[in-house]
Amino acid sequence: MQDVKQIATRESYGNTLVELGRENDRIVVLDADLAGATRTAYFKEAFPGRHIDCGIAEANMMGIAAGLASTGMIPFVSSFAMFAAGRAFEQVRNSIGYPHLNVKIGATHAGISVGEDGATHQCNEDMALMRMIPGMVVLNPSDAVEAREAVRAAASYEGPVYLRFGRLAVPVINDRPGYQFEIGKGIEFSQGDDITLIATGLMVAKALEAVPLLAESGIHAGVINMHTIKPLDQEMILKAAKRTGKIAVLEEHSVIGGLGGAVTEFLSEHYPVPVKRIGINDVYGQSGPACDLLRLYGLDTLGIYVQVKEFVMGWCPLQ
After folding, report:
1. How far apart are CA 203 and CA 238, in angstroms?
2. Which residues are catalytic?
3. Structural domains of the chain ordered from first start
């Protein structure tokens, strides 16, 4: 997909906030001294009276957002995923989730692709943390087109929403006729005979790239874009499991507790089939260029191909 336009999902987040700000004066944006990085600076420039820089005080920012939501405003609170989901977890849980307030958390710089910022900033645990909060919707868009639609859907939804965005520019794959985003509904790119690849975030494009490589090895793989981690599209997952009998889950997140955890929890109770979780395998990241790190942790196209082929055929490149 080298010739495909590539845009970071955080860019789409920032631009869509400006669109929403023009349409609804109840939209307010809060940031924790990272407006330039999270791209909420676009909103700040357009609507300075509705942007609040809370400083490096993420927990306090969540409390402010809760207060604004209780007055009828629609606050979008932004910081790096490590700080929004990690540092401020208690406040998100108790001040936003518990009273089920209408707060939208725009978490940028998620996953290993944060790159050179290193392990302290590479949040591979956020989807697990957020999906544990009762009533929290968790969205992880795959490209800039989907990010725009996810932000707009979150603004229309009544209740807390966690949105996950990335720093790395990724291929635009959803700029096509018939594309439609709906919270809780996966998008099926193709159906397979041998295995279904259920991917989320930037891993959707990687899954699509791996399909022709797998086909050369005689493996017919289908691809599902699971942009909503919670509520999970159980119906689509069940149909895929019954059709192919094997599932691989691809995520730029720990294999513990994220989309892989959600899929295996559901299938183990309703239709047990072999599942391969492809993600960060219970380790911390390290500092380096984003694409090099994806390759190192087996999350590039070739790494996916090797892991899926081994899973389906019992093949190992070292044999």
Report:
1. 21
2. 58
3. 6-171 (3.40.50.970), 187-314 (3.40.50.920)
**Burial status of residue 152 (CB atoms within 10 A of its CB: 0-12, 13-18, 19 or more):** middle
Task: Enter the tokens of residue 86.
Answer: 């990690």
Decide if 17 contacts 40 (C-beta within 8 A).
yes
> For each of the chain's 319 residues, which pLDDT tens digit applies?
456 799 999 999 999 999 999 999 999 999 999 999 999 999 999 999 999 999 999 999 999 999 999 999 999 999 999 999 999 999 999 999 999 999 999 999 999 999 999 999 999 999 999 999 999 999 999 999 999 999 999 999 999 999 999 999 999 999 999 899 999 999 999 999 999 999 999 999 999 999 999 999 999 999 999 999 999 999 999 999 999 999 999 999 999 999 999 999 999 999 999 999 999 999 999 999 999 999 999 999 999 999 999 999 875 554 4
Interstrand relation of 27-31 and 74-80 (parallel, antiparallel or unpaired)? parallel
Task: From 242, 249, 139, select the one nearest 184 (Cα to Cα).
Answer: 139
Of the candidates 253, 182, 176, 226, the one whose C-alpha atom is nearest the C-alpha of residue 4 is: 176
The DSSP 8-state label assigned to residue 99 in this structure reads T
Q: How far apart are CA 50 and CA 117, in angstroms?
A: 30
**Does residue 99 have a cis peptide bond before it, meaning omega lies within 30 degrees of 0?**
no
pTM: 0.95
